[in-house]
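WARN retry 2 of 3 for item q-0093 after timeout on previous attempt; input resubmitted unchanged.
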Amino acid sequence: MKRTVVALLSTLAAGLAAADGNTLLQECSEILHFAETGYLDETSTGAPFCMGMVNGMMAMNAIYRAQSGNAPLFCPPQTTITNAEGARIVVEYLKANPQQLDKDPGSLMYFAFRDAYPCAQ
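OK item q-0093 returned
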């Protein structure tokens, strides 16, 4: 079932033109810059995209978990996390895994959350 989720994320991300891990790294880095400085370039479109991806990933995990018999995709310590926390998780994952920057944003977001919040087996 988890392969189905990754396939769904890949399919959805295919509609994001040339978006890849490099784009996601830049977009989520904008949120971290804002969290640290309080400044966000008013022409930025990346930060809102990353925030939407973080919120979407958390919602998808909740929906997946709510389906009877499904284990969650990842297990954060609380039900919600802030956009800055989500952006930090993604940026750290992408910097630690530069060989994956050619992958689609949806899959990378999932891999980052899965690695940051593994579920006890």
